[in-house]
């Protein structure tokens, strides 16, 4: 998986860890073994603001943006606000938006109530579900929150972003635009000259 990372860990620490394990295991194993192009398991989620359902039931024709978040990390609220403000517009292009809470492996009633209250407090206008026992998160290999996955219509990973910072916003939008082909200009047709000035009809003023 190509994982774009912003957040609590410095780049020096990340580089040191990568160099230490570079010859011990493939990079994909460090992120759960999933790579770009791999399908995400079609796990069932518990509904918080919507009915329960499988991952595929929330997807649009061209894919799904999945935001894994928690109530206890500092970056998730900002990412969820960004998602509601900037990412919902991709629904008109066939890519829907889903927020998956991953607070704890075992959720008590008060834990679920906290998630529901947070979603209401933030007035989230897109579906919020719960990853029961963190089965989906563990299969994917998510270890940092928030993490955003961009999936295509077959649930295959297009890209992934871990953490959040001001610089992440533009890169995320550029990545989704590139996937959907938004903003690309059609190539000019070769051999076709631009039209010249209009020819005045016979007898028009200035005609000799």
Commentary on this structure:
The chain is α/β, with parallel strands linked by helices. The chain is 28% helix and 18% strand. It contains five helices and eight strands; from the N terminus they run βαβββαβαβαββα. The chain has helices at 11-21, 76-87, 109-122, 135-140, 166-180, and strands at residues 3-5, 44-47, 53-54, 63-69, 95-101, 128-130, 147-151, 157-162. Strands 1-8-7-4-5-6-2-3 form an eight-stranded mixed beta sheet. The protein is elongated and about 90 Å long.
Q: Key terms for this structure?
A:
208 residues, alpha/beta, eight-stranded mixed sheet, 5 helices, 28% helix, elongated
> Biggest sheet, open or closed, and with what strands and sense?
8 strands, mixed
Number of strands: 8
Structural class of the secondary structure composition? alpha/beta
Q: Calculate the mean pLDDT score and round it.
A: 82
**Count of helix runs:** 5
Question: What is the H/E string?
Answer: EHEEEHEHEHEEH
Instruction: Determine Rg (CA atoms, Å).
Output: 23 Å
Fraction in helix? 25-40%
Broad shape: elongated
> Order of strands across the widest beta sheet?
1-8-7-4-5-6-2-3
The residue ranges in which pLDDT falls below 50 over 5 or more consecutive positions are: 6-30
Give the percentage of residues in beta strands. Answer: 15-25%
Question: How far do the termini sit from each other?
Answer: 72 Å
């Amino acid at each position: 998986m190509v994982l774009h990372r912003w957040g609590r860990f410095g780049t020096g620490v990340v580089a040191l860890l990568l160099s230490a394990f570079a010859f011990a295991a493939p990079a994909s194993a460090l992120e759960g073994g999933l790579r770009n192009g791999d399908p995400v398991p079609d796990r069932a989620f518990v509904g918080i603001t919507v009915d329960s359902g499988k991952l595929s039931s929330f997807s649009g024709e061209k894919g799904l943006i999945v935001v894994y978040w928690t109530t206890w990390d500092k970056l998730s609220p900002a990412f969820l606000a960004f998602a509601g403000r900037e990412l919902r517009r991709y629904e008109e292009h066939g890519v829907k938006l889903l927020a998956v809470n991953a607070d704890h492996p075992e959720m008590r009633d008060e834990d679920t109530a906290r998630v529901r209250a947070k979603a209401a407090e933030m007035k989230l206008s897109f579906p919020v579900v719960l990853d029961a026992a963190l089965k989906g998160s563990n299969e994917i290999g998510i270890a940092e929150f928030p993490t955003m996955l961009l999936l295509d219509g077959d649930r295959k990973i297009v890209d992934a972003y871990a953490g959040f910072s001001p610089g992440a916003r533009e890169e995320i939008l550029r990545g989704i635009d590139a996937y959907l082909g938004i903003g690309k200009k059609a190539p000019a047709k070769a051999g076709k000259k631009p039209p010249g000035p209009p020819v005045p009809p016979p007898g028009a003023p200035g005609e000799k």
